[in-house]
Amino acid sequence: MMFRHSLRTRVVFAFGLFAALLGIISGFGMLATLRVTEDRMVERQLRLSVTDYIGRSGVDPGAAPPHSAFLKSYREPVDLPAALRNWAAGSPDDGYYEFQSDELHVAVVTTGEPPRPLYVVADVSEIEASATEEAWWIIGLVTIVAILTVLAIVLGAFISRRAIDPVVRLAEAVGGINPEQLSDDDWRRVKAGNFHDDEVGLLARTLEKTLKRICAFIDRERYFTNAASHELRTPITVITGALELLERAELPNNASRAVGRIERATIDMQTTIDMFLCLSRESDDSSYSEHFEVGPLVEHAIEQQRHLLANKNVSVDVKRSSNPSLLGHPQAFAIAVGNLIRNAFEHTPHDQGPVSVRIDRHEVSVRNHSGLEVNDPEELSRRRSRGSETQGFGLGLGIVERLCENYGWTFTLDVNRGAVDACLSWEPRHLNVDRATPGR
Predict the structure, then answer these.
(1) pTM to 2 decimals?
(2) SS3 helix, strand, coil % of the chain, rounded to 5?
(3) C-alpha span between 402 and 394 (Å, rounded)
(4) What domains can you pick out in the chain, each with its CATH number?
(5) Which of 8, 35, 64, 286 is deepest in the core (most CB within 10 A)?
(6) Cα 281 from chain centre
(7) What pLDDT, in 10s, does the model give residues 335-393?
(8) Spatial separation of the C-alpha atoms in residues 93 and 80, rounded to whole Å
(9) Which strands make up the sheet holding 419-425, listed edge to edge?
(10) In angstroms, rounded to a whole number, what is the distance separating the alpha carbons of residues 46 and 64?
(11) Where are the alpha helices (DSSP H) in 115-130?
């Protein structure tokens, strides 16, 4: 598993960078210290020589001025080295001067009777390190810095391998788990027993226990949903059979209406059971891929839920810009679309139509007006819960979200000034056939 920002690489880079910076700063600091030390030593010797001469000349006016292999004394500016003559012609004040370009240090002191300036010149060109020697010093320092950097990188690699390798192994183990489809044995990938009794080991054991509990919970939920759905099918089958017998008999109008309500409730219950069955197949949904037409499923859902608009004076406006086909789970798609349409029909107030159903190439959208001037889905849900409705958006939209998550579709809900726009869309890769159909 490749990491874009590897901890191990960052540790090695930090060690190498620290060693390189430390070596460079230390090397240049050493060179600067040598230069400053040389200048201070020359200046101090020059001061001591001048002080000694002043003391001697006070006792013996004819005392010889300072003179040595690198010190020379001059009374007249014309006798100075050529580089200093123009400077001395300006009658500089007593003091100490440095001319780095010519590697000369000069002390000016007024002595004698009558007082005259004495120029004591120190030529340090033979004392200080030459350019060649400085070059070799720099080469040596660069070599030392390079060696230290390499050693730091090696040390950083060793330390990172020992310290960070458990973290890397744990990350690789966790990264191999698909959180969208956890299986019963995914918690075994962590292998907490392979880690030491330290912080990483504690994290590994905690992750293993957590994943084990999650996998067990998912397995129990899937088993319960599947078992409960199948158990509920038996009474639904009995009720459906009884309704078929009642439909054949001649019943009064009131009884016929009651049978119709029972039939619709039975269909709703069957739809709920089918929802649970679809959700319980999360681990093997790939085996339920089938080509189906979107349009007929939408029209069937509209007709199935049209009774919810009775006595509301609300029309349904269906528009098609295309006739898309999908490769997926038709039953799950029909349940999702049916819930969107049911929710729109159920929550559209009297005379607040029409309910618009639009079928496009990549989506099915259902738009209705809630009768409440709000711009937020959560606020609309709270307002409905406080009003006459017993639920906000209901269990249906929660089921739609779960189905879309399981089967790779996208569900969005937008509320603008009370207008609710619910949209179920899919990626082009899910398309199999798309035939243009005129709108109606």
Answers:
(1) 0.48
(2) 60, 15, 25
(3) 14
(4) 11-137 (no CATH), 178-283 (1.10.287), 288-435 (3.30.565.10)
(5) 8
(6) 32
(7) 889 888 988 888 888 888 789 999 998 999 999 987 776 666 666 666 555 544 434 34
(8) 16
(9) 316-320, 355-359, 363-369, 419-425, 410-416
(10) 15
(11) none
